[in-house]
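re the bet — no i am not wrong, look at it urself. input seq straight from the record:
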Amino acid sequence: MAQALLFLIDALAGFFSLLLLTRFFMQLNRVSFANQIGTFVVQLTNWAVKPLRRFIPGIMGWDLASLLPAWWLQCLLLLVVLSLRGVAPELGQTGELALLVLWRGAVATLRLGIYLFIGALFIQAVLSWVNPHSPLATPVHQFNRPLLQPIQRFLPPIANIDLSPLVAILLLQVVLILL
């Protein structure tokens, strides 16, 4: 029973964290929210982000009211996993456990962000072959642009085929391995 509960909590926390990270990166990369993806993300995250904006200001274009809840959610998920597994720290280890949870939550949030970009790169690659003029093509391209532009400086299109998404996916996989 605990396994099924953990699965459901993990799925819900992961989905909502991905939505919050999508909102964070869309704002950071200046992707228009006036599309299906943007509307979907905003409608599902407004209930959490709007109240937090009163207390958590944005810094240098970073929407911390979207980023911090994703991190908190990953930390909370880790605490739930530890409690279901019966990890109860002694009084002296509470500080160490808190630091571990905060650090592992940050790493989990970073991993989710990388998976988000890998998924967006796959979507962009598929759309470029299937329907490059799809209404979703523009926001996905805007989302990936900051990641692809440095690669495209060194790797121009070959025979009118852009290989930069493939290189970006490989580099992101390397980062995942290092994490």
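see?? The mean pLDDT is 88. told u. also The chain has six helices and no strands. so pay up
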